[in-house]
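Example 239.
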Amino acid sequence: MKSTAQSMNGPSPLHVDGLNQTFDGLEPVFGLQRLFNTYAAEDILITTSFGTKSIYLLYLLNQVAPGHPVYFIDTGFHFAETLSYRDSLIRRLGLNIITIDPHPEEHALTKEESWWIEHPKMCCAINKIAPLQPYIDRHKVWVSSLMAYQNEYRANLRLFEQQGDILKYHPLLQVSEESFNTILDELDLPIHPLFYLGYESIGCMHCTQPGKGREGRWAGKTKTECGLHLKYFTKHEHA
Ligand code: SF4
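Predicted structure in complex with iron/sulfur cluster:
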C-alpha cells in the first residue's frame, strides 16, 4: 500500500531519516521506482530546466513512469538552443511537459529593468520561484537531478532533505561526473548543443557563460544557485 505518511507540516525528521536509510545505496532507477511505490504518483513533482544535466533523470522517469508530468519553468530568458533541445527531448522520450510561466507583468518589469544585473535574487524569485510555488503546494515530494560533485552545497545534501514544506529527493546524488558522462554515452542520449561550445551548466542566457562545472552561472556574483533548490519553499517564511 502506498504511504503518504506526512503531517500538515511535512514528514517528521525521523521519517526523513527512515527514507534515507531505506533508499541508501539504490541505483537511481531503483530509487525512482521505489519512490513511485512509496508515494502516490500525483504527490510526486518532477521539474526540469533542460540543462546539460537534465537528460538522465528524464530518461529514468521514462523507464519508471512514462507520461508522468514534468514541469518546465519558462523564465522567458532561456537560450534558443535550450528550447530546441527541449523540443527534441519531447520527441525522443515522449515527455509530458507542462510549461509554467511567470506572472506576465512582473516578468515584464524584470525584463525592462534588467533585474538579473543588480537584483538577480529577486529576478529568480519572480521568474522561477513564485511560478513554481503553487505546484510545490500541491505535491509532497519533489525529485531533482542534483549531483554531489557539482558544488559544495550539493555535496552536503542527503538523498532526502526536507526543504520548507516539501520533501526533496535526489536520486542522482551519488552519480559521479565520470559515471554521468559514461551513462549518456552508453545510452546514446542527446547532449545540450551549448555543451559543445563550452557551457557545462546552463540556465537563463543573461546569467550563463561558458565555463567548467557551474562556474559559468552567475559568474562574478556570489550567487551559485537560483534558489529553487535552497530553502525557499516554507509557508511561514513567505507569510
Ligand atoms: S537566472 Fe538570471 S535571468 Fe534567470 S531568473 Fe535568475 S536572475 Fe533572472
